[in-house]
Amino acid sequence: MAILKSLKQKDKEYIFKSFGNSEFENPAKIIFARFPQPDETFPTANQKSILESSIIKEFDNSQKSKEKLVEHIINVMIDNITANRINYEKFFEECVSHIENLEYESKEIKTVKEFLELPKEAFYAIASEAYLYSKENDLFTIEEKKI
Fold first, then answer.
1. 113 compared with 1, residue with greater pLDDT
2. How much of the chain exceeds pLDDT 90, in percent?
3. Residue 2 has pLDDT above 90, yes or no
4. How far are the Cα atoms of 42, 99, 128 from residue 39, in angstroms, in the given order?
5. Among 28, 46, 114, 123, which residue has the least CB neighbours within 10 Å?
6. Torsion over CA of 111, 117, 119 and 125, rounded to 10 degrees?
7. How far is CA 33 from each of CA 25, 37, 70, 95, 129, rounded to the nearest angstrom?
8. How far apart are CA 141 and CA 126, in angstroms?
């Protein structure tokens, strides 16, 4: 019989490195409520299909119809590129419990809601780092059970 053993699980308390945070004596921490499932990606939008459009259904090969089709294809491509981006706000709302030891402009940041109100550059730097950490795999090994 095979025995699956956990070697190293991610810590629910994550000390981010952005802005030199990890160098402080009492660094800020992101406390995870849960980690995303391996197939969970938090896209900003669902991808769209070019063929599932009224423009395709009403296409009559006229010049105006061709122009609408080209514009539609470009818009769908732009939307699909955007859809592949990670929605860090959704990720934080679903996976993060709270934040510890973080302050911005003399206000302590404890909740996810408060964290989402940080300046966008700071939010995205910290959130993208936390997301990458959350997607790291735990380490496992398997061994044979001796009977």
1. 113
2. 50
3. no
4. 10, 25, 17
5. 46
6. 50
7. 24, 13, 45, 5, 17
8. 31
For residue 107, the cross-strand partners are 104
Q: Is 123 exposed, middle or buried (0-12, 13-18, 19+ CB in 10 A)?
A: middle
What are the residue ranges of helices labelled H in the chain? 54-57, 63-83, 88-95, 112-116, 120-134
Name the E strands within 13-56: 13-14, 29-32
For residue range 81-96, list pLDDT tens digits in order.
655 678 899 999 999 9
Environment class of 106 (CB within 10 Å of its CB; exposed 0-12, middle 13-18, buried 19+): exposed
What is the biggest distance separating any 2 CA atoms in the chain, rounded to whole angstroms? 77
- Give the burial class of 28: count Cβ atoms within 10 A of its Cβ; 0-12 exposed, 13-18 middle, 19 or more buried: buried
